[in-house]
Write a structure and sequence with these properties.
The chain is an alpha/beta fold and about 375 residues long. About 40% of the residues lie in helices and about 15% in strands.
Length: about 375
């Protein structure tokens, strides 16, 4: 079969890329033909280069609009074309003639909001397609037109994939409709080892945040402001932040402003997640907007307790007082309350970690790439 993978991620790499690239790799291994449509980043992630080496055809789209001449040409042509036969920037998909297209939407609304092009393609195409929605906001920002587009895409897609029930519930609430063809798919996890258990009599407890340094999504700034308060400043902790991203300088400035340079360290990006889990005692996930996140499941697999916001899949996995603490909301006050509950029960962290490790195998699909590929392969 022939599969096209179309990704809209606004960064060269992120958690939303891991699943579809794993599915594409599995498709190539099974001798399917694969086309990948991706933004023309100056340097592609190593996983994309591997897919290219293994036989995938890559189409590089310009960020975020084609050149001016191409846009003018498209507009002139469309003036003479009837509805249903308009030109789009994605004619390469029609030429490729895939058996199925998987649209991987990092933000979740990219098709519905691209009313002049991608939405036109989806309305016109006769190629079977499915959509993976990775991140949806709690706030209902959808205009009437965008909501109508969203409903059209949801109904035309063979499958609408999500990483949590919360995402499905939010979108159904925003749109006022039922998504009957929704499926929840987990993410592939790295090879995680269970580190030595945290000692309950430590002099300093290491807290950590793992994720892209994009604060509007990941909320690292929220934790820094919490820990800058007099009550927290006097306690025996150290915060380690792992990751890279657009808000690195802003976070460094905030750490300096709050006089926390001796208690907060930015380590940058590292692939050695096992060492991170070995060096830290509690994983903080202060996400304001998230679909999983993957770090939640990897932390549980490493038998580490988690304090997380009421976002994404976290309400489905974090059980307060059993394997971590779930914040009541994504607000700063609620997250501080959750951190305080965890801090007051440090002697339970080891038990919480063991409970997290025991809980995951019965509730998680450790072969999601094959699950995803199996579903779209059956669509004819």
């Amino acid at each position: 079969m022939k599969f096209a993978f179309f990704t809209s991620n606004g960064f060269p790499w992120g958690g939303s890329e891991i699943l579809w690239t794993a599915a594409a790799k599995e498709a190539l291994k099974q001798n399917h033909v694969v086309l990948i449509s991706i933004f023309d980043w100056p340097q592609q992630h190593a996983s994309i280069e591997v897919l290219k080496e293994e036989g995938a055809t890559l189409i590089y789209r310009r960020r975020f609009y084609p050149d001016l001449l191409t846009r003018i040409k498209k507009k002139l042509i469309n003036n003479f074309l009837p509805s249903g036969k308009k030109s789009t920037y994605h004619e390469y998909l029609n030429r490729f003639k895939p058996d199925h297209i998987l649209f991987n939407l990092a933000g979740g609304d990219e098709i519905a909001t691209d009313t002049m092009d991608l939405m036109v393609f989806v309305k016109q195409t006769k190629i079977p397609f499915s959509v993976f929605y990775h991140s949806l906001s709690e706030q209902n920002y959808l205009s009437e037109t965008i909501a109508e587009n969203f409903i059209f895409v949801l109904q035309k897609a063979h499958y609408n994939f999500f990483t949590s029930q919360m995402q499905i519930n939010l979108l159904q609430q925003h749109l006022g409709c039922s998504i009957d063809n929704a499926r929840i798919i987990n993410h592939p996890l790295r090879n995680i080892k269970v580190p030595a258990a945290t000692r309950v009599d430590k002099v300093v407890y290491n807290l950590c945040i793992i994720g892209s340094l994009v604060t509007r999504w990941k909320g690292q700034d929220m934790v820094i402001r919490i820990l800058a308060k007099d009550h927290w400043r006097s306690l025996n902790w150290h915060l380690n932040i792992y990751g890279d991203g657009a808000d690195k300088e802003a976070l460094l400035n905030l750490i300096s402003e709050k006089k926390l340079t001796d208690k907060v360290t930015l380590h940058g990006h590292t692939e050695d997640v096992n060492n991170i889990f070995a060096e830290n005692d509690m994983i903080l996930i202060p996400s304001r907007q998230d679909s999983g996140p993957i770090v939640l499941f990897e932390a549980m697999l490493a038998a580490k307790p988690v304090v997380g916001t009421n976002m994404g899949a976290m309400p489905e996995y974090i059980q307060t007082g059993i394997n971590g603490v779930l914040s009541k909301s994504t607000s700063e006050d609620a997250f501080e309350e959750a951190m305080q509950i965890a801090w007051d029960q440090k002697e339970q962290w080891v038990a919480w970690g063991r409970n997290a490790f025991d809980y995951l195998p019965e509730h998680y699909d450790f072969g999601p790439a094959q699950t995803l590929l199996n579903l779209i392969t059956k669509v004819q």
